[in-house]
Amino acid sequence: MRGFFMSCYKIVDIVHQNDYHESGQSQLLWRDNMGFDQDMVADIRQFNRFYTDILGLIDQDILDSGFSLTEARILYELSLAGEATANQIASQLRLDKSYMSRMVAGFVRAGLVTRRVSDQDNRALLLELTEKGKKTMAELSERSNLQVKTLLAPLKEEERQELKASMQTIQGLLKQSTERFQLRRFENTPLEGAFILQKQLEIYERENGFISDVWKTFLSDSVTEMLKNYKPERERVWLLEVDGVLSGCIAIVQAAEETAQLRFFFVDSGLRGFGAGELLISSALLYCREKQYRSVFLWTCADLKAARHLYAKHGFVITESHENQDWGVPAIEERWELKL
Predict the structure, then answer these.
(1) What one-character-per-residue DSSP string does 168-201 give?
(2) What is the pLDDT of residues 116-166, one digit of tens each?
(3) What are the structural domains of the chain?
(4) pTM of the full predicted structure?
């Protein structure tokens, strides 16, 4: 039951991380018409909502314990590994490294985790659960297992086996999908610029109602400015390709000497839920650290719930918000920042 519990969270975490877009009609080659039956898409999204509600019941036992879901997952992975570095756990759970570092520090202060220098590499610190940490993890696991058992209790044994097989099928198929993702080198061509602009215009009009001339001019000017002043030594654009088709983007633009801005972040709606967004944002934040930026910020809208979940997961916090009436519909804009 324990493995079932954590695999549930890994599935729904991918769903949450990528059902979003960030500030994007076109004649170019990208994934507008993917050939999917619309009823199938609607059914999958309905399943996502249903499954999230089911996991919310399991979440409650974690929340009542005083630990966040992410904290519980870190403790769980450490209990499985025995010993591991913070970077190894962060990579496995796709967490921002500075965010991971802060959580580990909290675990150490609480007496749940110890750190020691690796015998093989004195630059690496190995994390291990203390006896208190192991006891805490056992209590969390038992509470979660009990909740899952309660959830499965009404089912007959053959129904439980059918559920297990179905979960394994879902995991296997979606894992195959993620292996098709590739990040393509940005060459600053007119075609690429048109993709970044037009795709965002399309997404924001369809999903948010942003149709005003003010919005279109703002976005067009923003993309044009980035392309015109692009500094490859301090800035980077990643284009996502799926089976050779442009399907997403993210950009890091220098805002000040030690400050970066994350911009033009979106994934085609047909690909959300498969880990593409996580691949993009993780690549962007790694680049920021390599270039020794001290902070990175972004602007988003308050109604993009899944996006905000992703930003919070990577350690971003809201520093400013205001209402904007210029885009075609009222929107609450938010500034999020991450200290690196």
Answers:
(1) HHHHHHHHHHHTTEEEEEP---HHHHHHHHHHHH
(2) 998 877 778 899 999 999 999 998 888 878 888 888 999 999 999 999 889
(3) 2-178 (1.10.10.10), 181-339 (3.40.630.30)
(4) 0.54
